[in-house]
C-alpha cells in the first residue's frame, strides 16, 4: 500500500463513474501542476471495489508524453477498475530497472506478480474486462490491429530520439508522409469493410482504444489533425472513443493534471 503521508507521492482519488473526483484527495491538489517528481494517482472505482478484486499497480516513466502505458490506462478507466498509476522520473530508472522482467517499462503488478510488455499488459486487461472481442476470431483481429499500432510506435522511435532539430523535422515529415499516410488509407478501408463504426465486430474493443491512444493522443497532439482530412471513418472512431464517459472523464482530468502532455 502506498504511504499517503509520503511527500514524494501525490495520491489522487477519482471515481470513474461518479460525476466529481473524490474530494479527499482532489481538493488538496487542485491547481497543482505535475513536475518531474515521482507521483502516484490512485484511481478508485467504488461500486466495483471489493476485497477480492486484484490490486493493480501500473508503473511507467513520468514522461512529458503519455507513452506506452496509456493504452493500459485507457482500458482500466473504460472498465472502471481501481488501479495505482505510478510514474517515476528517469533518475530513478537505474534503481528500478533490475526489478523488471526485461529491463523495460511499463510493468503491471497484479497482486504482487509482475507482467511486462505494453501489448501483453493491455491484452491481459482487455480479456479480463470484456474488451478483447466476443470470440476467437474477433480476439485475433483485435490483436492484429493493436500489433499494427505497436509497429507504428516503433517506427516513430528514430525521429523521436533524433537530437538534431533540423534532421528530426525532416524525419518526422517523412514519417507522416509515408508511414502514417499509407496506414491511414489502409485502416480507412478496414473501417469501411467492418461497417459498424468499430474496428472489430459491433462493440468497442481494445483495438479501438489503441487507435484512439495513438492517432488522437499522440499524432494530433504533435502534428494536428490534418492527416485525418481524408479519413472520415477513422476520425469518427477517434471521436466516438473520446466521447465515452469514462474516457472523457479521464482525459479531462489527465489534461488538467499533466498539461505538458497536451
Automatic annotation (TrEMBL):
Keywords: Transferase. One of its GO terms (biological process) is glutathione metabolic process. SUPFAM superfamilies: GST C-terminal domain-like, Thioredoxin-like. Transmembrane segments: none annotated. GO terms for molecular function: glutathione peroxidase activity; glutathione transferase activity. The keyword Electron transport does not apply. Residues 135-262 form the GST C-terminal domain. This is glutathione transferase.
Amino acid at each position: 500500500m502506498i504511504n499517503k503521508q509520503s511527500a514524494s507521492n501525490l495520491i489522487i482519488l477519482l471515481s470513474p463513474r461518479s460525476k466529481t473526483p473524490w474530494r479527499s484527495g482532489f481538493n488538496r491538489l487542485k491547481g497543482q501542476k505535475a513536475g518531474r517528481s515521482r507521483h502516484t494517482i490512485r484511481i478508485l472505482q467504488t461500486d466495483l471495489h471489493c476485497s477480492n478484486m486484484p490490486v493493480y499497480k501500473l508503473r511507467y516513466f513520468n514522461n512529458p508524453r503519455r507513452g506506452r502505458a496509456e493504452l493500459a490506462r485507457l482500458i482500466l478507466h473504460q472498465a472502471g477498475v481501481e488501479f495505482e498509476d505510478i510514474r517515476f522520473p528517469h533518475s530513478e530508472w537505474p534503481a528500478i530497472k533490475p526489478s523488471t522482467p526485461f529491463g523495460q517499462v511499463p510493468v503491471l503488478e497484479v497482486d504482487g506478480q509482475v507482467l511486462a510488455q505494453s501489448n501483453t499488459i493491455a491484452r491481459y486487461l482487455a480479456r479480463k474486462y470484456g474488451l478483447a472481442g466476443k470470440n476467437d476470431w474477433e480476439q485475433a483481429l483485435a490483436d492484429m490491429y493493436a500489433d499494427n499500432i505497436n509497429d507504428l510506435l516503433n517506427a516513430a522511435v528514430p525521429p523521436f530520439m533524433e537530437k538534431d532539430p533540423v534532421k528530426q523535422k525532416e524525419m518526422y515529415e517523412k514519417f507522416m508522409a509515408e508511414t502514417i499516410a499509407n496506414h491511414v488509407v489502409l485502416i480507412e478501408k478496414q473501417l469501411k469493410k467492418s461497417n459498424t463504426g468499430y474496428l472489430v465486430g459491433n462493440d468497442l474493443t481494445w483495438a479501438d482504444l489503441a487507435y484512439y491512444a495513438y492517432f488522437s493522443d499522440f499524432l494530433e497532439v504533435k502534428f494536428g489533425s490534418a492527416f485525418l482530412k481524408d479519413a472520415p471513418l477513422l476520425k469518427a472512431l477517434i471521436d466516438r472513443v473520446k466521447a465515452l464517459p469514462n474516457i472523457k472523464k479521464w482525459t479531462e482530468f489527465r489534461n488538467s493534471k499533466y498539461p505538458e502532455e497536451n
